[in-house]
Amino acid sequence: MAPTKYSLATRLPLQNGLSIPQIHLGVYLMSGREAGQAVKYALASGYRAIDSAQMYHNEAECGKAIREFLEDKTLNTQGLKREDIFFTSKLASNSDYVRARSAIKKSVETCGLGYIDLFLLHSPYGGKTSRLASWKAVEDAVKDSEVRIGGVSNYGVKHLEELIASKPETLPTVNQIEVHPFNTRTTITDFCQKNGILVEAYAPLARALRMKHPTIAELSKKYQCTPAQLMVRWSLQHGFIPLPKSVSKERIEANGKIDFFEIDKSDMKKMDGLDEYLVTDWDPVDAD
Ligand SMILES: NC(=O)c1ccc[n+]([C@@H]2O[C@H](COP(=O)([O-])OP(=O)(O)OC[C@H]3O[C@@H](n4cnc5c(N)ncnc54)[C@H](OP(=O)(O)O)[C@@H]3O)[C@@H](O)[C@H]2O)c1
Description:
InterPro entries: AKR (IPR020471), Aldo/ket_reductase_CS (IPR018170), NAD(P)_OxRdtase_dom_sf (IPR036812), NADP_OxRdtase_dom (IPR023210)
Helix content: 25-40%
Protein name: D-xylose reductase [NAD(P)H]
Structural class: alpha/beta
CATH architecture: Alpha-Beta Barrel
Shape: globular
Number of helices: 10
Organism: Knufia fluminis
Radius of gyration: 18 Å
Number of strands: 10
Binding site for substrate: 122
CATH superfamily: NADP-dependent oxidoreductase domain
Bound molecules: NADP nicotinamide-adenine-dinucleotide phosphate
Distance between the termini: 47 Å
Pfam family, one: Aldo_ket_red
Order of helices and strands: EEEHEHEHEHEHEHEHHEHH
Number of domains: 1
Largest sheet: 8 strands, parallel
């Protein structure tokens, strides 16, 4: 069968008329210097989206690398503009409206990109009152054109239901959660997909902890791809937005080259069956 459409150029349409690239470079656990370099490698190889956060302490370097890439005619051979690049950041902690609102403004200033494409509440921690107040701050940042779209991260179904029940002016466009074949989180992803909330899959490579798993090895051989490409492709074929992270130029390039094969239905099922609730980082989805 001919491989389907997914590539670094694939974008998913959004209700507000904008669109979101379906593969983003993750920059967690990168120093500022590493992030600046990785962002340039990624943009040069066709990535159009970067996933940062206040907690990563590299928003400034990511923004600088994006600006420098856009201005450098030898790198930016396609004449890309700011609006062609998608930059995400996240609120470090939920508190009250005033603090959240000013923290968002600070991120916009720090990245130096004029606006942030997607701004997320990084986790549900902090309790109901601060979650709802922080969400209101994201909505107002969108109204004030500091942010294009808003979303949440690490939200379990109960947090999404709480937000929906509060009748906000807008619902989150995205819920960014840990999702990979070793932690499929189908209860949350099904809820999101039923409610029109896009799932961003963090740790899509399972932090490189299962690259040698026999099923991953067998299917990588079958599809003549790397284990990382297999996992990125699995995520895309589920309709998720994977955020693979690497500091290496070769790996960044390879992880985005997923247009030459397609995982068939039975192998997708086989990969779904690898679920072992592997948590690679934190797990706030059940927080009070
Ligand atoms: N919202 C949240 O709470 C949250 C939490 C975690 C992550 N995230 C986001 O999701 C992104 C991805 O998650 P993650 O960074 O935790 O994990 P990941 O992308 O699943 O895995 C990254 C690890 O895989 C290695 N790697 C990358 N490509 C590889 C390849 N082709 N072959 C072998 N190893 C490879 C990387 O090492 P090298 O760098 O040395 O290549 C790194 O150790 C983060 O960067 C961040 O943007 C969000």
